[in-house]
Amino acid sequence: MDDNLGYLFAAFAVTWLMIAGYLYYLNGQVKTLREDIEDFEEQAAEGR
């Protein structure tokens, strides 16, 4: 059973790295969306 602990740790580490990468990606998407919303609000204010 101790032989499998290395594989378990590797799977655990890879899973957390994938989660961290996905959160980093989502953070970038949220930043882009916020910038787009600000641009839209500025354009809407100019149109009034």
Secondary-structure blueprint of this entry?
Layout: H1 5-47
Question: What would you note in describing this structure?
Answer:
90% of the residues lie in helices and 0% in strands. The N and C termini lie far apart (70 Å). The mean pLDDT is 94. The chain is built from one helix and no strands. It has 48 residues and is mainly alpha-helical.
Which features would summarize this protein structure in a list?
48 residues, mainly alpha, rod-shaped
Short description:
The protein has 48 residues and is mainly alpha-helical. It has one helix at 5-47.
User: In DSSP terms, counting alpha (H) and pi (I) runs of 4 or more, how many helices?
Assistant: 1
Please state the CA-atom Rg, rounded to the nearest Å: 21 Å
Helix/strand-derived category reads mainly alpha
Order of helices and strands: H
The low-pLDDT segments are none
Distance N terminus to C terminus? 70 Å
Estimate what percentage of residues fall within beta strands: under 5%
Roughly how much helix do the residues carry, as a percent range? Answer: over 70%
Question: Major beta sheet, specifics?
Answer: none
What value does the average pLDDT take?
94
Number of strands: 0
Identify the overall geometry. Answer: rod-shaped
